[in-house]
Each structure stands twice: as structure tokens, then as C-alpha cells.
């Protein structure tokens, strides 16, 4: 089977080299095969010797994983337009040579990546390896779907490429990634934690609440940073292993760019596309978990009936409903939220379904939804303006859409929260919360402490 595949891949490559010679354009070639069971985290770990651009995505509730290694095609934009990503994407698909008999979501030509929370803000040095919008079609892609495993090879072929060199590279890479039996590296321990200006942050929460009382806005989400120094360089694969174990029901993701890695376990789906069917989630309003079942239930009940949390949540519901209605039919939003418990905290949760109208894409939806009032505020521009002026944090990709899309109108984006940026032995963790008129700075501060926990416990390697 593999031999046959290699032969037909060779013939695709040779066709691509000929086409690249005539058109004088580089040519994307993509081929997918079904392979034996491979552990996605081990695959990610083994890829370290091949590339410093790796991407990991798991929807733990759906047991769906994709891992990308290297970059066959780069869609990188510094300006603030998702529509241009769509143009690039369509053009790429129109010209690509694709052999994918499976048509399984997340196989074949797949774009993986994310974007900045606010591309109009100048990047600080913290995020200098992350473009404002960056999606890559990986050279090697592992997809796990319904307990079956698929391997896609994507190559950008140039007119002067050598067929034999290309096929040798493919064989060697496959061998390293798919047949590795190496143990996962151990995670370093936490040496030091430093909260960045917590008192100043509390003052900013108070300022935001005052502005809201004065009717300058209705809700503003404010975030802050916790800087962690580890005893040694971080092994992202072991953080991923810990997050997968400790955060069921979350999106566990990592996007590496030139060795820096943005990693997290987000409970918040922004949007999932399954052909024309869309799924989104309103998630805002937070409480801790109880120590006993009874206490947990009581905290949940209180959360459900707490005016402050309900108003934080309702802003999100209203905005997501309106955004969906602009581009979709059959938008369905339940009247009241439910409690969704996660490992370290519980949230108010309202699921949304809709049918995408003809002529619109997942990129239109992302542009319309981001940032929802769960990460920005209400009204959008006034809250973004407040964040830009007062937050004193370069959010970078924190709080922004992160995810993937394929050539068959499938894709999924999470909101990149409960996350951190890994740079060698340093990790910057981010957490925020929705400020409304009754917000108490001390209580919001404590809430951010709980929101750091998923990443902190993954770094500690224990509960
Ligand atoms: C901004 C964050 O969470 C958002 C998502 C869910 C609940 C939230 C809240 O209750 O404030 C936040 O809006 C974060 O985790 O950094």
C-alpha cells in the first residue's frame, strides 16, 4: 500500500515540477494516505528534530486531533482582513495538485494557525515571531478522526526541484515522525512566578467599572500576565500531554513559530464549520468548582442566578446571535444558559447552531464574531479602545481565534484563552475577566488566579 502510494506521489511530484516549469510559479502538491495508529503527542515531539514550526490541535470531547509539521505554504498577513486570507486560500486550492480519496475533515490541504487579538496594536518583542495573521499548510500532517489515522504530505514544488531529493525527504520525514518509539521528554519544574503589576491591574478594573457606571461602555474584558520561569527549557510535548490529561472537554492547542510556542487548553469554541452547518458557543460568567458534589452544585446554582454573571453572559449571547443572523439562516439559541463544569472552574454556557448562507465562509463568521464580548466587551469599539489605552499588556494571540480549516468547508476555531507563550525556559501566561458595573477588583483578581490554573498545573505536571 505504502509502496503504491509512494509511486503515485512520485508521479504527482513530477507533474508538479513540469507545471512549475511552464507556469513559472511554485506548485502545491498534496497527497493523503491512511496509516497505522500514531500518538499525536509523540508525533509532535518527534517533529522537533525536523522543524521549529509545529502545530497541535485536539478537540478532546470529539477525540479529533491534527498535528502539523513544517510549512509547505504560508498565508501571512500583517493587516486586519480575514477576507484576504480567503482570497489567498481559494487561489491556492484552485492551483494545487491534490490526491485525497478520503475527504475526512482535517486531511489534505489544511491551513492551521491563528491571529492577534487586535491587529491594529503594534507588536511588542514578546510576540515578534507571530504575525498578526498566520496560517500555514504543513509539510506533514497527522489527522486522527473517528479512531482512524491519516497522513498528508504537502510540498511546495519549484521548477528546479529534484524529484529524487523530494521523495527521499518525504521517506525520511515519515520514518522519523510515524515510527518513533522515543519516550516523551520530561517537563522542567517551575522555578519562579512573577505577577505583572497586579495592583495596577486592580486599579484598571476599578477604572473600567467607573467608566461603565458613567455609561462609557457596558462591559470591558481586562487581562493580565503571570510570568513563569522554569528550571529548564520547556518541552511543549509534555505540557500538551498534561493538558490532555487534565483538561478534558477543552481544545488543547499549540502553535509554534520559529521555536516560540503559543500553547493552551481553551474551553471556548468560537465556531465550528461542518459544510454549511455552524456551531458556536457563548461562554462567559465564571465560578470556582466546589470541594464536594453538594458544594459544587450550590456554587453552580448561584452562578446561574447571579445577576452580574448573567449580564456578562447575556452580552455575549446577544452579540453572537446578531452576528450569526447576518450571515446565516436557522440560527438557534436556547433562551437560558446552562452550567458547564470544567476541571478548575465552571462557566455559564449557551450553545448556538446555524446554517451558513450561500456565498459566505468561515472567514466571514470569524471576522464578524471576533472579539466577542467574552474577550473584548460592549460596545466592541469602546471596549477595544479602553483595552488599548489601559490594559498594559500585549495580548498578542491570547483571546483571538486559533484553529484550522480545510479545502472541503470544514474547520474549527477556539478562542485562545487559558493559554501561554513559551520562549525557552520562560512562559507568559494570560488570563482575563469581564468587568461590568458591579465588578469588584479583588474578586476579579481572584478569578484570574483560577483561570491561570489550567496552564500552571500543566507546567507543574501535577493537579
Ligand atoms: C477572558 C477569559 O475568559 C473569558 C471566557 C469565559 C469566561 C469569562 C468570564 O467569566 O469573565 C471570560 O469572559 C480568560 O480565561 O482569560
TrEMBL record:
Its cofactor is Mg(2+). The lineage of its organism: Bacteria, Bacillati, Bacillota, Bacilli, Bacillales. Catalyzes the conversion of chorismate to isochorismate. It catalyses: chorismate = isochorismate. The active site is at 219 (proton acceptor), 268 (proton donor). Pfam families: Chorismate_bind. Its EC number is 5.4.4.2. The gene is menF. It comes from Lentibacillus cibarius. GO terms for biological process: menaquinone biosynthetic process; salicylic acid biosynthetic process. This is Isochorismate synthase MenF. HAMAP family: MenF.
Amino acid at each position: 500500500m505504502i509502496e503504491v502510494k509512494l509511486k503515485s506521489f512520485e508521479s504527482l511530484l513530477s507533474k508538479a515540477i513540469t507545471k512549475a516549469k511552464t507556469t513559472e510559479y511554485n506548485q502545491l502538491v498534496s497527497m493523503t494516505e491512511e496509516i497505522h495508529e500514531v500518538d499525536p503527542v509523540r508525533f509532535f515531539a518527534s517533529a522537533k528534530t525536523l522543524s521549529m514550526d509545529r502545530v497541535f490541535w485536539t478537540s478532546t470531547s470529539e477525540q479529533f486531533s491534527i498535528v502539523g509539521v513544517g510549512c509547505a505554504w504560508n498565508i501571512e498577513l500583517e493587516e486586519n482582513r480575514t477576507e484576504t486570507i480567503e482570497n489567498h486560500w481559494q487561489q491556492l486550492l484552485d492551483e494545487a495538485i491534490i490526491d485525497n480519496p478520503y475527504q475526512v475533515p482535517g486531511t489534505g490541504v489544511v491551513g492551521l494557525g491563528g491571529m492577534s487579538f487586535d491587529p491594529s496594536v503594534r507588536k511588542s518583542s514578546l510576540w515578534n515571531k507571530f504575525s498578526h495573521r498566520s496560517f500555514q499548510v504543513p509539510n506533514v500532517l497527522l489527522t486522527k478522526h473517528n479512531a482512524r489515522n491519516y497522513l498528508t504530505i504537502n510540498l511546495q514544488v519549484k521548477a528546479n526541484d529534484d524529484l529524487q531529493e523530494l521523495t527521499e525527504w518525504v521517506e525520511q520525514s515519515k520514518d522519523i515522525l510515524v515510527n518513533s518509539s522515543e519516550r516523551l521528554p520530561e517537563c522542567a519544574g517551575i522555578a519562579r512566578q512573577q505577577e505583572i503589576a497586579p495592583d495596577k491591574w486592580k486599579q484598571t478594573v476599578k477604572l473600567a467599572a467607573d467608566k461603565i457606571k458613567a455609561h462609557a461602555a457596558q462591559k470591558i474584558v481586562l487581562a493580565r500576565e503571570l510570568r513563569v520561569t522554569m528550571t529548564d527549557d520547556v518541552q511543549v510535548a509534555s505540557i500538551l500531554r498534561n493538558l490532555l490529561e487534565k483538561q478534558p472537554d477543552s481544545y488543547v492547542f499549540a502553535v509554534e513559530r520559529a521555536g516560540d510556542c503559543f500553547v493552551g487548553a481553551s474551553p471556548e469554541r468560537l465556531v465550528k464549520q461542518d459544510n454549511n452547518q455552524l456551531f458556536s458557543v457563548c461562554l462567559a460568567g465564571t465560578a470556582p468548582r466546589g470541594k464536594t458534589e453538594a458544594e459544587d452544585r450550590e456554587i453552580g446554582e448561584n452562578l446561574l442566578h447571579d445577576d452580574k454573571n448573567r449580564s456578562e453572559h447575556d452580552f455575549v449571547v446577544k452579540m453572537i446571535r446578531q452576528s450569526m443572523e447576518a450571515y446565516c439562516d436557522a440560527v438557534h439559541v436556547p433562551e437560558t444558559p446552562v452550567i458547564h463544569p470544567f476541571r478548575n472552574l465552571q462557566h455559564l454556557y449557551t450553545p448556538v447552531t446555524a446554517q451558513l448562507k450561500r456565498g459566505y465562509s468561515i472567514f466571514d463568521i470569524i471576522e464578524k464574531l471576533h472579539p466577542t464580548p467574552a474577550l473584548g466587551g460592549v460596545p466592541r469599539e469602546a471596549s477595544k479602545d479602553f483595552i488599548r489605552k489601559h490594559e498594559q499588556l500585549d495580548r498578542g494571540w491570547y483571546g483571538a481565534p486559533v484553529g484550522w480549516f480545510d479545502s472541503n468547508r470544514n474547520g474549527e476555531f477556539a478562542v485562545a484563552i487559558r493559554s501561554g507563550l513559551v520562549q525557552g525556559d520562560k512562559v507568559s501566561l494570560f488570563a482575563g475577566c469581564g468587568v461590568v458595573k458591579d465588578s469588584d477588583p479583588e474578586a476579579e483578581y481572584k478569578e484570574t488566579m483560577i483561570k491561570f490554573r489550567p496552564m500552571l498545573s500543566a507546567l507543574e505536571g501535577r493537579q
